[in-house]
Design a protein that fits this description.
Number of helices: 2
Oligomer: single chain
Helix content: under 10%
Shape: globular
Structural class: mainly beta
Number of strands: 15
Radius of gyration: 18 Å
Largest sheet: 7 strands, mixed, barrel
Order of helices and strands: EHEEEEEEEEEEEEEEH
Strand order of the largest sheet: 1-3-5-6-11-12-15
Length: about 250
């Protein structure tokens, strides 16, 4: 029987997802006790054990449809499973976002700059340039420079839960309608990327990005609509601890 839940908010955003294979030892250190890595098995990102979701929110509304502030952010999520089970889940272990926006108790306050340009020539070919940059006061630095040729995005509808890396009993359910364009996939032999430069440094990132990391796939989501739902048993705690706006993401 499904657990009772509440519709929390709805967001519209643009995303670029980067799936990587990084040190398994570093991944294990970021998971809570009782959880273990479960690298992705989906074709385009097979073998990846870390995903970065560079996100530029365009619009956000609460459960009643009232406007909320939208924000850029980037989550670091790990495909993982509780030991003794075979059910892979998604665990958010860190986000970089403006201060005060921390649904999972994992946020590092960060300033961001985003540049995005698209050019379509007379033949209809579209080239896209993106530059994402997140910086914290403590010296953490996460940056992505990307240039690729856009393909034909595929419409999809998905639903999944994201668990908190600091409080694994807490999760939120996302029901998503999106258009996805896999611009690079090592397993699938896809590569329309012309430039890719991923930089990560600082105390909170150095173990994951030690020079051995490998990009497995890059997926552009030029359209993404997410409905966010929270189990009803967390509703009272949420109201006491965080404002509705803080839960936007």
């Amino acid at each position: 029987m499904a657990e009772p839940e509440e519709h929390f908010s709805t967001v519209g955003e643009i995303r670029t997802m980067v799936a990587l294979k990084v040190s398994e030892t570093a991944i294990e250190k970021m998971l809570p006790e009782g959880w273990e890595p479960a690298p992705l098995s989906i074709a385009a990102s097979k073998g990846a054990n870390l995903r970065l979701g560079f996100t530029d929110q365009i619009v956000a509304t609460d459960a009643d449809g009232k406007p909320m502030s939208a924000t850029p952010f980037v989550p670091l999520v790990i495909p993982a499973r509780a030991k003794g089970t075979d059910q892979t889940q998604i665990m958010a272990v860190r986000t970089f976002a403006p201060a005060g926006r921390d649904a999972y108790g994992i946020n590092i306050p960060a300033r961001s700059t985003i540049e995005r340009n698209a050019r379509t020539d007379a033949s209809g070919a579209c080239s896209v340039q993106e530059h994402w940059r997140f910086v914290t006061d403590e010296g953490d630095h996460l940056e992505l420079q990307l240039e690729y040729v856009r393909g034909k995005p595929v419409r999809n509808e998905i639903e999944y839960r994201v668990y908190s890396g600091t409080r694994p009993d807490f999760y939120r359910t996302y029901r998503i309608e999106l258009a996805e364009d896999v611009v690079r996939s090592v397993p699938a032999g896809i590569d329309r990327v012309q430039t890719c430069l991923l930089k990560a440094s600082g105390r909170r990132l150095s173990e994951l990005f030690d020079g051995t990391e490998q990009v497995v796939s890059i997926t552009s989501l030029p359209y993404c609509r997410r409905e966010i739902h929270v189990p009803r048993r967390f509703a009272v705690v949420r109201v006491e601890r965080l404002s509705t706006e803080d839960q936007c993401r």
